[in-house]
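Bumping my old thread because nobody answered last time. Still need a sequence for this structure:
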């Protein structure tokens, strides 16, 4: 057991039920960050609404649409985004694998492990 003086119990940092605005668990649950919390844009630009776009909103919007997923090794997969989870594990259907812009192989369904994903982007229709 660790007995160092700087050890803190993680439960003491954030009270239960009180997630910081914009935290990952809060975004995945669909909760909106507080407009008056730290980092909010409320009141910064007169006459403009605060920005509420998050990665979660983007991913929900592109479900069922064509996307490109780039992996850390440079490989790109293009296909229809079927589903994803909180770890960014992604399922594509009717997918194709590209390396350096060149088509390497076509797949029916593809599962991409989230820890390998560099980014997800949309493909123009």
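Sorry it took so long. Here it is:
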């Amino acid at each position: 057991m660790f007995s160092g003086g700087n050890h803190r119990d993680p439960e003491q940092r954030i009270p239960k039920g009180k997630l910081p605005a914009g935290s990952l668990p809060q975004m995945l649950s669909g909760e909106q960050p507080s407009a008056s919390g730290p980092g909010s844009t409320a009141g910064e630009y007169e006459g403009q609404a605060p920005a509420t776009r998050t990665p979660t909103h983007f991913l929900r919007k592109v479900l069922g649409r064509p996307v490109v997923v780039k992996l850390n090794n440079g490989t790109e997969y293009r296909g229809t985004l079927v589903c994803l989870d909180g770890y960014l594990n992604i399922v594509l259907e009717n997918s194709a694998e590209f390396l350096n812009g060149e088509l390497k192989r076509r797949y029916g369904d593809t599962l991409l492990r989230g820890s390998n994903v560099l980014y997800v982007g949309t493909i123009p229709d």
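The chain has two domains: 8-49, 55-122. Let me know if any region looks off to you.
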